[in-house]
Amino acid sequence: MNVNGTETTLRDAFESNYRARGLDEAEIEQKLDDIFVQNEKGQYVFREYSTHTMRIFYMERGAGASNLHMRFNLASVRPGQILLSKQISGTDKADYKLAEYAYQIWYETSGNSGFERLTERTETISRVNVADQDTNAAAKYLKSFIPAGSSAVYEDVFFLAPNQTVCISLPEDVTRYYIVECGVNTQVYDSVSVNGSEIEGIPSGDSRMDYATDAAFLSERQRVVFDNHVSADARRSLTITNRLYDLEGQEVTDDPGRFTFRLYLGGENDAELTAASMQDYCVKNAHGEYCRWDAERSPRDMTRQTISDR
Length: 310
Hints:
It is built from two helices and 24 strands. By secondary structure, it is mainly beta. The longest helix has 11 residues.
């Protein structure tokens, strides 16, 4: 990059800045190690989940013809806010429309010695406390939640979808906070990581675990990324086989008749299943070819493509 007409690197720019402030060499190295890490090409880049402050100085020239437009894809976090993100690893499946994950957010204020749960809205201000970062829409919230097949009851629960990031607004006098992912199904996920480090879970019964971050000050941790790793045993294929038998119970293999079916899918906490017209899935024919249904063509005419409907 170019700074004041000189080609340099981001790490060198930080190092020069620290030295100009009068820090000794040990302090400089410690600060640089906290912020930077080498990538596979040997280049120094910011560590993942590290927090940085951007200050922009702009001089307005007066009456008109002076405009400033800025556009960047960096996550912006205001004081008193936290970004919470959900990721899934261990699988290459990209369609997670039916999945959702439950979280409790606990915080401690300067006037209290204990932690309390964050609720949907602040009592003194009519605002949503947890909102999608991109759309600003309120995150799904339930006052009380029981995971499917579980007897554990969780109060004040927020839900995230995979690859979603929400912005959490905490009370102004908050000192520390921690976040719990509630009722993780251990038959599906074999580990959970937070900001790149695997954490231990606490059994909550019925093959489920709760995973909590440690308590941290807002200034120490302004972004939390939960990553659930899908167990290899949880990745299965659904096989649908149709067989036709005659009145004597013998299997018929040469009947030209055709049969239709409709697939219904749902998340583990869904009370009802819905027709799978919006999820990506594949049907494999007898020749091992992945096919999709084309209503405008012959029922026997199927193409070797991934289907999105039927």
